[in-house]
Write a structure and sequence with these properties.
The complex is a heterodimer of chains A (338) and B (337).
Chain A lengths: L16 H8 L4 H27 L3 H4 L2 H6 L7 H23 L4 H18 L10 H27 L4 H15 L3 H16 L5 H27 L2 H9 L4 H31 L11 H9 L8 H29 L6
Helix pairs in contact in A: 5-6, 7-8, 7-10, 7-12, 7-13, 8-10, 9-10, 10-12, 11-12, 12-14, 13-14
Chain B lengths: L1 H23 L5 H8 L1 E6 L8 E2 L6 E2 L1 H13 L3 E6 L5 H7 L4 E2 L14 E2 L4 E3 L1 E6 L13 E6 L3 H12 L4 E6 L2 H9 L5 E5 H10 L6 E4 L6 E3 L2 E2 L4 H20 L3 H5 L1 H10 L1 H8 L4 H9 L2 H9 L30
Parallel strand pairs in B: 1-4, 1-5, 9-10, 9-11
Antiparallel strand pairs in B: 2-3, 6-14, 7-13, 8-11, 8-12
Helix pairs in contact in B: 3-8, 3-12, 8-12, 10-11
Classes of the chains: A mainly alpha (338), B alpha/beta (337).
Chain lengths: 338, 337
């Protein structure tokens, strides 16, 4: 036993599985009891799920890939949508590979511009209102995220602006929107726009605008918190060396604030992604809406559980992908290591 | 000051011009709009078993409501129907704004709704009843004291059952669900004693349960839900189109004109030679009624396609209000002459 003292740094303990289990799971009667109880609960829970999954009717999922992907889009337009989806998926894979081998960001940017133009060209005969399923969910999420990000930054900067008019407007906007539930906002916006403009704005666009207005307010608050997390000394030093207010914001404050904002921003965007499912209330056929209409088909009437379990898995996969991506980004930016 | 006056003048002019432009347009009937478009835009729910749902093979919208949309398109003689999914919250604004021409979306005809929009003839008479497990001792509303009641939240069903319970001074526990299937699943799992909504839905849920004999629909109908098409107010040309489409399908059933007959010129001419009413039906309004029957069949055929005895969403028609008026029901036509 005395030899232990000489071992520095800490000894590398090689525990067999049995030793590890004894040390962590079965030390003392209380822990043993808890381990056994939890284990039993876990086993019965998992086996119940597996037993259910084995006799569930998965045909509602496996037989309808087109529905799940693009909802009620006319069949003759489906090949175009497949092509567009394939292009985007290919671009995403290329980007992942490109990031790994450190291709210049400019190349990736060019790739995406090209892909987006190609997709718009392929999808040109498809009206926005004809898109459904996973495509609609992703489209709503991507468009609302990419619109609410810049708007949110503007509003967030306005919130800390020294000009009273801009600050007042930003505060009004943020507080107003944050005081309304999203579902109320979507409904109100849908009805209001319908009565004002008729069909000038499609239902999908209305949903996009509603989601964007809503999320921008939250992004604005995240941006404000990010800006205020940068020590005042930074701004003062920048002004002291002669940078203008705009330059200070652009080169000194924002880059630092942005790093601090990433975790909350990703959280907000994941929440936006999940919130797109609320558009069912205005009659859009996103993933959830498609699931609902599949459940009305006579032969799938009993498959409620299967459909909702599938939706759960689908939403989880995409949300997890987003948070995984954000963790990679944080690592790359060296967050948490300063 | 001069700047302000100029600005005010510009605003007045702009508003006046806009008002003039909107005033100057003669009111166009939906009928002309639909014909010019070459397509009917029809609102349906898209997720109600039997009434409207996608056909898995073709991806087209089908169902009782969807077929009536196709019949209207046949009546105005446009080749195509575009289906727009509307929810109970969005159907009336969508009709008001004209983004849909007509909606067949299980809408109950009520006097307050009629203030905003117009209703066509009733296509389906529904009413709220109770669904219980077969071993239950509940036989009607009077047995519900202390019961746990599952409902689809925010619907008239929820309000109706609450009113009925309050009238009787019953204690009860209301368990609400976001969708009707969830409420039914809760009944099946024993979380509540009774599930209540419109009888058509209850019959549908019962029919699709793994073992239909486990459930029974009990009690009398304690609400009246005549489901009818909705369209914009003050457009009587368009109202005629929708109304006579429904009347046409009903009359076709009375006269025994099926889709097969309507599509067969020889059999039609044999019928018209024999029966002057059929002749009128085939000729009046340019044969519009016959075109509607050609596209979806008569009322009975449409009913049987989605609620007939051989379909899993079967809803017994005999003895209900949904049989023809001539057989003692409430589905009535008007004379084509």
């Amino acid at each position: 036993m005395a030899t232990r003292v000489e071992v520095l740094p800490a000894p590398e303990e090689r525990l067999s599985a049995w030793q590890w289990a004894r040390r962590n799971l079965f030390d003392g009667w209380l822990n043993t009891l808890l381990t056994l109880l939890t284990g039993a609960a876990l086993v019965s829970f998992v086996s119940a799920i597996l037993r259910w999954a084995a006799r569930a009717h998965w045909s509602v999922i496996t037989d309808n890939p087109r529905f799940w992907l693009m909802g009620l889009m006319p069949v003759e337009l489906a090949p175009r949508a497949f092509w567009a989806g394939g292009l985007v998926a290919a671009a995403a894979l290329l980007t992942l590979g490109g990031v790994r081998v450190r291709v210049a960001p400019r190349v990736l940017f060019g790739l995406w511009v090209g892909i987006i133009i190609a997709v718009i060209w392929v999808m040109s005969p498809v009206r926005l209102d004809q898109i459904g399923g996973l495509y609609l969910t992703l489209l709503l999420a991507v468009v609302s995220i990419s619109l609410s990000f810049p708007i949110g930054i503007l509003v967030g900067m306005g919130r800390v602006s020294r000009l009273p008019a801009i600050r007042g407007f930003s505060i009004l906007y943020i507080e107003l929107i944050r005081g309304i539930p999203l579902i109320t906002m979507l409904l109100w916006f849908f009805v209001f726009v319908t009565l004002l403009s008729g069909d000038a704005i499609t239902r999908v666009e209305r949903a996009m605008i509603g989601l964007t207005i809503f999320t921008s307010a939250y992004v604005g608050e995240i941006v404000r918190a990010g800006i205020q997390s940068v020590p005042r000394g930074q701004t003062e030093a920048a002004r002291a060396v002669g940078l203008s207010a705009v330059q200070t914001m652009r080169f000194i404050v924002m880059p630092q604030a942005m790093k601090n904002m990433i975790p909350s921003l990703v959280g907000q965007f994941i929440s936006l992604f999940k919130d797109t499912s609320l558009t069912v209330i205005i009659g859009l056929s996103d993933l959830v809406g498609t699931g609902r209409s599949l459940l009305a088909i006579t032969r799938y009437l009993q498959d409620t559980q299967e459909v909702y379990v599938f939706l759960l898995i689908a939403y989880f996969c995409f949300s997890y992908l987003m948070s995984y991506g954000s963790r990679l980004l944080e690592k790359r930016l060296g967050l948490g290591e300063r | 000051m001069r700047k302000f006056v100029g600005f005010a003048l510009a605003v007045v002019l702009a508003v006046g011009l806009a008002a003039y432009v909107t005033q100057a347009q003669p009111p166009r009937s939906r009928q002309d709009i639909v014909r010019a478009r070459g397509q009917l835009i029809c609102g349906v729910d898209g997720g109600t078993p039997g009434f409207s749902f996608p056909d898995p093979a073709s991806g087209r919208m089908v169902g009782f409501d969807a077929d009536f949309c196709r019949a209207v398109a046949g009546f105005v003689d446009v080749p195509d129907v575009e289906f727009v999914r509307v929810t109970s919250a969005t159907r009336i604004p969508a009709v008001l704004a004209g983004s849909i021409d007509v909606a067949f979306r299980t809408a109950t005809h009520t006097i307050t709704r009629d203030d905003q929009i117009d209703f066509g003839p009733v296509t389906f008479f529904d009413g709220q009843r109770l669904l219980v497990r077969t071993d239950s001792r509940i036989n009607g509303l009077d047995d519900l004291n202390g019961a746990r009641i599952c409902v689809h939240s925010g619907t008239t069903s929820e309000r109706n059952i609450t009113d009925q319970m309050r009238q009787r001074n019953f204690r009860f526990q209301l368990i609400t669900f976001a969708t009707a299937p969830e409420a039914f699943a809760a009944l099946a799992a024993g979380r509540c004693d009774v599930f209540t909504t419109d009888a058509s839905q209850l019959t549908g849920f019962r029919a699709t349960a793994p073992n239909p004999a486990d459930f029974k629909v009990v009690g009398r109908e304690f609400s009246d839900e005549p489901l009818a098409p909705i369209y914009q107010e003050n457009d009587s040309k368009w109202a005629d189109v929708v109304d006579w489409t429904v009347y046409g399908l009903v009359l076709a059933e009375e006269l025994g004109i099926t889709q097969a007959v309507a599509r067969d010129a020889a059999r039609m001419s044999a019928l018209t030679a024999r029966d002057p009413i059929v002749k009128n039906f085939a000729e009046l309004k340019g044969g519009a009624g016959l075109r509607a029957v050609r596209s979806v069949g008569n009322y009975g055929e449409v009913y049987d396609r989605y609620f007939g005895p051989r379909v899993r969403t079967a809803i017994t028609r005999d003895g209900s209000r949904n049989i023809l008026a001539v057989k003692g029901g409430a589905i009535a036509s008007r004379p084509f002459r």
